[in-house]
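User: I'll paste a sequence; please echo it back and then give the predicted structure.

Assistant: Echoing your sequence first, then the prediction.
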Amino acid sequence: MALRLHDRQTNRHVIVQGDRVYADRDGDRKIAERDEIGADALGPRHGALVEAAEYIVRFCDPRMPGITNTDGSIVSGGSLNMVEQEEFESGKGTAEQRTLLAHHLSFFDGRNRGTITLGDNYRGWRSLGFGRLRALVQTVVSAAIFGWRHGGTIVIAGIGRDRPKGATGIYGEDGNIDEKKWAQFQAAFERAGKGRILTQDEARAVLAEQVTLGLVPKGQFRSLFRVCERMNRAKTITIDEIRWLYDASLFYRAASMTDDGGKRTLSTS
């Protein structure tokens, strides 16, 4: 398994596969199999990166971004999916960093293939605690909106082109968080909430104040509220949870909760 990692000590993005480490050599922010960096060039960090990858693969869901090694010096950027693995093995290489929007969608790519089939989609919603009927509705709606070009299958690499425009704008054109836009939302949420906790009604009011939401983003936030209601056991949402939605960690956190009501749990198998 190949894993993207960021070494905070050297500020270097790499891919680790087995006991080999690869990094961008020509400045195009892509990494290919030919770009191996030996232990002589990396020194002790080579062993640290290999150990971090082994730790993450052994104890965590390797698809999840943001996982760190034991001392926090190395952060995971998620395992390569099948499409990215093919790019990595080819001459053109794969991006050294996946966008946060792609990470957000990759939660539903349970088989790590780079695409989300109807079955993958449904199992993802079930693992978030949605009942069978609600999960089916979520699957049909999201497949129609984001997978319409591909018969209902969502292609993660093409989501920048396929997703509807005109939502909150928190995701920028590059598929990552627009920090300036997020700061506006965060300030508004903090004004409305008591501390960092808001009722769902308060959160809705802030969203209405900040942006005119279309049908699609309204549905997405309804789903977010349902997930957070289950996590918090109350009709509340925190500012952190809203941020987690965009940095791609919310779904993994929610699916990892032990009280799953008999529904399918998150699995690395």
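The chain has two domains: 2-98, 101-255. Residues 101-255 form one domain.
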